[in-house]
Amino acid sequence: MKRTGIKGLIVLIGLALSLGAMAPTTALAGVIGTSDVISERQAASDRDRVQEALQREDVQQALTDYGVDPAQAKERVAALSDEEARELAERIEQQPAGAGVSIGATTILLLVIIWLLVR
Asked: Nearest Cα to 109, choosing from 81, 70, 83?
């Protein structure tokens, strides 16, 4: 008698589980706004511009001169918030034409990166 009760209980549990697995599920989808897509792409673009600046040999040399590991600086840039990446990209863009190789632009970039590393 006890054996029949356990078998019945197992059958009931199995039936309940299989019915639960067959229950219809609904997908939750929302509309993604244009501004969300644009801001996401802009953030990626800003981060890419900063990473490109870090790829330059003169910037990497300056980082090394200041005792900052260029690989660590790249990791920190990847971890920046969207707002921080935008601000840093804007500072890079605000440099006058031809300042890409100047010591002044490199120094400003380094100071910003060091400031970000210390925070």
From this structure: 70
| Secondary structure (DSSP) of the chain | -HHHHHHHHHHHHHHHHHHHHTS-------PPPHHHHHHHHHHHHHHHHHHHHHHSHHHHHHHHHTT--HHHHHHHHHTS-HHHHHHHHHHHHTSPTTGGGSHHHHHHHHHHHHHHHH-
Task: Give yes or no for a contact between 74 and 113, defined as CB atoms under 8 angstroms apart.
Answer: no
- How many angstroms separate the CA atoms of 110 and 73, rounded? 10
Quote the CA–CA distance of 47 and 44 in Å, as a whole number.
5
Handedness of CA 66, 71, 72, 75 (dihedral sign): positive
Query: How do residues 53-67 score in pLDDT, each as one tens digit?
Result: 888 887 788 788 878
Q: Which two tokens stand for residue 39?
A: 């801001």
35 CB-side CA count, 13 A: 0
How many percent of the chain have pLDDT more than 90?
0
